[in-house]
Amino acid sequence: MVCAIEIILTFLNMTGLILKKIIMHPFRFDWRLIFVNLKKDERHTNIIGTEEREIIWIPNLIFDNSVEDVQISNDPFSSLVVNNSGSSTIILNDNLQEDEQYHGFDNGITYTRVYKMKLLCIFEQHKYPFDSQSCFVKVEYTKCLLTI
Question: Can you give the pTM of this predicted structure?
Fold first, then answer.
């Protein structure tokens, strides 16, 4: 699975950065998911509802160089949107109306969440402001271990 992560940063001061927004698109293609009546070419209209989002798996990612070890979460502040990029199949529903059914392996899910965290970065200040500096966002994948 290929996932592009877009990160928007804001410069805080010479001791660190603040991470403002993270977008993973598409982070999930799943053959087990089926979507009904997706809107075409409208980015924010295929939002996954509260009940459905509780069963969607979100990877355990931690911002390793954040002060608070912030973890990506599927909370009310995040947004999950289905990208309508596949073809549909017409099905007949219980009310004898036609619905369009879309399979999850063709239609990815985009995760968006605004974060406010301080990232730890080391800057060389002796040439400031006549140089450029880099600060890497370290994202680490962790596996959940269940202890019984």
Answer: 0.70
